[in-house]
Amino acid sequence: MDSLETLTPVWSESLLLGHTVIDDEHEQLAQLIDRMQCASAPDMAQALDAVLQHATSHFAAENELMLMTQFPPRDCHIKEHEAVLSTLRGVQKRCGEFDVARRLAQELAAWFPAHVQHLDSALSHWLCKLQHGAKPVVLRMVRKSVAASPVSSPF
Questions:
Q1: Is residue 116 a part of any domain in this protein?
Q2: In this predicted model, what pLDDT tens digit does every residue of 7-26 receive, in sequence order?
Q3: Strand locations in 1-155, DSSP E?
Q4: Residues sharing a CB contact under 8 Å with residue 77, sequence separation 6 or more, in sequence order
Q5: Residue 3 above 80 pLDDT?
Q6: Which CATH number covers residue 48?
Q7: Is residue 63 part of a domain?
Q8: Rounded CA gap, 46 and 31, in Å?
Q9: Cα distance between residue 136 and residue 101, in whole Å
Q10: Straight-line distance from the first to the last Cα atom of the chain, in angstroms, rounded to the nearest whole number
Q11: For labelling alongside 70, which of 16, 100, 142, 147 has CA 20 to 30 A away?
Q12: Cβ–Cβ contacts within 10 Å for residue 105, how many?
């Protein structure tokens, strides 16, 4: 990454799935990934540990939901969780290598939205269908930019 000023936050409302617990955990994980991307060398080990701890807890909860509800593509989803945790642990063992950890943070930031929008979205739909008989509906507020708004005359 050339400049931390150009860092785009990982989290956006486009990642909301309509499952409050999962959405809240995703937002927290995204914030931790952002923190890891911005971490200085002395702070990187702590930032990596926070991502690993949250991801471990979150993935375990998702895995349990998939197993309990017999989510059809659970094996693929669980294997992806395991691969991410394995990578996090591998980099954690090399904690003195700042560039490796920084690169992992960049890769997590690229991976996370796609994971949420594809695998976790399918899980959210499955859970909602089981509970309510339909897929979730997520309402988003669209803000008009001031520049795009027509100028109205006070006269």
A1: yes
A2: 789 999 999 999 999 999 99
A3: none
A4: 62, 63, 66, 71, 119, 123
A5: no
A6: 1.20.120.50
A7: yes
A8: 14
A9: 36
A10: 50
A11: 16
A12: 26
pLDDT, tens only, 84-100: 999 999 999 987 799 99
The size of the chain, in residues, is: 155
Domain assignment present for 145: no
How far is 96 from 29, CA to CA, in rounded Å?
Answer: 23
DSSP 2-43: --GGGPPPS--GGG--S-HHHHHHHHHHHHHHHHHHH--GGG
Is 143 part of a structural domain of the chain? no
The residue type found at 86 is S
Residue 16 is part of which domain span? 11-132
- Maximum Cα–Cα distance across the chain: 68
For residue 2, the Cα-to-chain-centroid distance in whole angstroms is 22
% residues pLDDT > 70 (the chain): 86
Chain segment 52-77, per-residue pLDDT in tens: 999 999 999 999 999 999 999 999 99
Element at 76 (helix H, strand E): helix 74-93
How many domains, the chain?
1
Burial class (CB in 10 A: 0-12, 13-18, 19+), 79: exposed
